Amino acid sequence: MNIQSKLESNNLNSMKVLVKRGSSIESIHRAHASICDTKGRTLMKAGSSEYETFIRSALKPFQALPFITSGTSEKFNLDNRTLALACGSHCGSANQARTAFKLLWNADIDIEKLKCPFPQDKESRLQHNCSGKHSAFLATCKKMNWDLDSYLMGHHPLQKEIFRRVSDLLKIPVEELIAERDDCGAPTLLLRLSQMAILYAHLSRSDQPEFEKITRAMTEHPDLVAGEGYFDSELIKRGHKRIISKGGSEGIQCIGLLGEGVGLSIKVEDGSKRAKHAVAIHLLRQLEWITPSAIEELDEITLQKKPGIYFEVEGKLKIP
Predict the structure, then answer these.
(1) How many CA atoms lie within 13 A of 203 on its CB side?
(2) Is the separation of the CB atoms in 166 and 160 below 8 Å?
(3) What is the per-residue pLDDT for 6?
(4) What is the pLDDT of residues 110-140, one digit of tens each?
(5) Does residue 243 lie within any of the structural domains?
(6) Which residues of the chain have pLDDT under 50?
(7) Residue 181 sits in a domain of what CATH number?
(8) Residue ranges in the chain assigned as alpha helix (H)
(9) Is 137 part of a structural domain of the chain?
(10) Residue 115 domain-assigned?
């Protein structure tokens, strides 16, 4: 199939986000979504569930697995706050930076070992939105006596362990995983939307101790996953400990329904953040995973509509 045919196939029955100013359409974003269970079955979809793209920061809860399974958190007396930060893309608040600092301090690791970028207009790498993940990476390496300087390289034992866990969950050979460097320097993976949904189905089922620890940390400390006013934190708060949510750059959003083993993944083709949030709210309304009043609050807080602007989403999830 050539590129044009593939694009046309992907766009079949995809959702459209219409950004309207008054009654006139100002912008259009196209999106795809997939809902899967732990057995790998696609339960519902909109557009192409086989749409292939990078999972970006929605991979973070799975990148935190070695932090738990290696016994790192216990060895360095680290609590659920540090685990929630490791799974999140935080906004660099003082509280979040202090939590990242605590993680490094307890593990006796110098801040200079952090390889996440120095954020613009900030005072420390601790304020980078991936500092929690990187700090957990370093602490795990310290516990396992792995090299601290090359922890972001694909051949590093830490990254190999992350890839192994993902391949086991997806039931594919690890050699089939395609990894590229994310903006923070850590590897991220090229996956189909259905595969992202499967990962979040496993995470939300919480029948493995490490998954239960991750989801408990995220639901107990939602403001460390993103921050006040940010989509992931605000959705988790309104989910009554039944919802986990983690977005990624370039229009990626993943959500899990806790206890049910069901995962939802979303991709907006042009990478729009506002569009992925509009789609997520639209689908949550259809799925009834949170209350109508919670949906309206989420819409008001996270879409940050300007006067005269509103969003209209066309398309719904359908059973394949």
Answers:
(1) 35
(2) no
(3) 52
(4) 999 999 999 998 999 999 999 999 999 999 9
(5) yes
(6) 1-5, 7
(7) 3.40.710
(8) 3-10, 60-63, 65-69, 72-75, 80-87, 94-106, 131-144, 157-170, 193-205, 209-220, 222-225, 231-238, 273-287, 292-302
(9) no
(10) no
Neighbours of 28 (CB within 10 A): 12
What's the distance, Cα to Cα, between the start and end of the chain in Å? 22
Q: What is the total count of domains within the chain? A: 1
Give the DSSP letter of residue 38: T
Q: Is residue 111 part of a domain?
A: no
Taking residue 286's Cβ as centre, other Cβ atoms within 10 Å add up to 13
Residue 257 pairs with which residues in a beta bridge? 243, 262
User: Which range marks the domain in which residue 246 is found?
Assistant: 3-60+154-314
HSE-up (13 A, CA, CB side) for residue 4: 0
Give the count of alpha carbons within 13 A of 163, CB side only.
22
**For the residues of 255-271, what is the DSSP string, one character each?**
EEETTTTEEEEEEETT-
What phi and psi values does residue 17 have, to the nearest 5 degrees? Answer: -105, 115
In angstroms, the CA 199 to CA 171 distance is 11
Residues in the chain: 320
In the structure encoding, which two tokens stand for residue 94, read together?
């003082």
